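fyi for ur records
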Amino acid sequence: MYIPMAIYIVAVLLANYTATWFIPMPVFGLVSVGTLIFGVTFTQRDRVHRFGRKAVYLMIFIAAVGMVLESLLLDVPWRIILASFIAIVLSETADTEVYQRLLHLSWFQRVARSNIISIPLDSLLFNVIAFAGVFAPVKLAAIIFGEIVAKFLTGSLAALIRTAGEPKPPLATGAAGE
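which gave:
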């Protein structure tokens, strides 16, 4: 439980620190270096789900405390910290509640379905709060688009790596009742 929690917390803090460093995407979109790091948090959070809601919410709380300290000690702008805090609390809560309702599905299906809600929500909330009025609307749209794509890619890659070594369920053979 502690390793995925630690990876999550460190990734949140590194993502905040690098949230204003942007990389252009090939056709349309921008992605911050922080987003490339932050995509890993979705899978780490989903790994902590197996320990229950309390563990997930404790991890989110510790990350939030770390964000405040990060702003004070590393001079990360408060608009980034506020945006991150609000986006994490709302998107991670949505993700946690969706994930917990899907416990009857495979781990990968739970991750994929909960991320469909949490990734766009996180990207919209964070970027609108952090950058509205800082960037022109077209640039803000490019950032939101780029971040959604990057988070899905990094989150999916992390989930695929995590499930790569898992045994496959046996295939059913024959007709029912045989």
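The beta strands are 22-24, 30-32. thats all i got for now
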